[in-house]
């Protein structure tokens, strides 16, 4: 099953103190403003694995395998002078979408592009997106990665011409008033060619020469099995989050943020094989709470704010309340999938599904109910018996 984990990465260039949008995963880049070499490789890995000031460790593979959404910040004050020390990375799970029309790219097209070393074309608007088959570096980052889409080091249709027509603006020298021609290669401290005096370019001029660039969306394509998804869920819901604040933070926000974004998507919910498996595993899973969990308050206060502890039941609640709120515009395929594959559906959802206008949804629910009754008590007990194991 293909699953995309998506990145938008921004770093502050230590040379010119401006935002630099990262265009390639795990590659070093050159600042377009000042030409400084930006060493990024380890930063991305570190931001994933360790809370910058708590020092807690987390398995990045598990984060990428899950359908999770969140932000990773890294302020590395121990970075040497001149090294990138400020780093912001938005990560989210969604299908890999066409950057022009937002239509999800076809999974078979993606696989075809990887094996034929060519860009992937959007089926709706024919826009090409560069594809970089997973190399050694990417495989080390995630052993099940198969490609990175929209990576500037990928196979492209027409390599993007990087602002080849540079914009020229005229600026009056602050000493002699002569017109100075400036472009994006001009220095912030520009010498007047008439009077030789130096002009420090004001922000308004500088920003026009270097307009803000949105970070590129980079899609890391993984080829996962169902067991990878199960292991991710086990990882997050059987570990002691009270000794690992990064783990706590992810359970606290990344699960529900993904669900919120999933149902809010303008193009409707996406239904890949991998996201269907995720819902099936997540909504059928049960985890016993440790006695430690039971004693602790639902909220925990850390230096960074108040965290509400999410348990698996809370995540399911978030799913079903979003499902209900979006019900009117949900596609039938998702309703049918939930009706047919989830063992414990809350009554208020069961009620909606049983009255759904689509017969296929009502039938799936009926069939699911009768299969539930057929589970023998012994089997049921065995399935529930293992701590931390999945129900379905
Ligand atoms: Zn720079
Ligand atoms: Zn398109
Ligand atoms: Zn001058």
Can you walk through the features of this model?
The chain has 392 residues and is α+β, with helices and mostly antiparallel strands. The chain has three domains: 171 residues, no CATH class; 61 residues, no CATH class; 113 residues, no CATH class. 37% of the residues lie in helices and 19% in strands. Strands 1, 2, 5, 6, 9, 10 and 15 form a seven-stranded antiparallel sheet that branches. The radius of gyration is 25 Å and the shape is elongated. The two termini are 19 Å apart. The site of one zinc ion has 8 residues, from loops.
Q: Could you give the topology of this structure?
A:
Layout: E1 2-12, E2 19-21, E3 29-30, E4 37-38, H1 41-49, H2 60-65, E5 69-75, E6 86-93, H3 107-116, E7 120-121, E8 128-129, E9 131-133, H4 136-141, E10 145-149, E11 169-172, E12 179-182, E13 189-191, E14 198-200, H5 203-209, E15 218-223, H6 226-238, H7 245-264, H8 273-283, H9 291-295, E16 299-302, E17 305-308, H10 312-325, H11 332-341, H12 347-354, H13 359-374, H14 377-385
The structure holds zinc ion (3 copies).
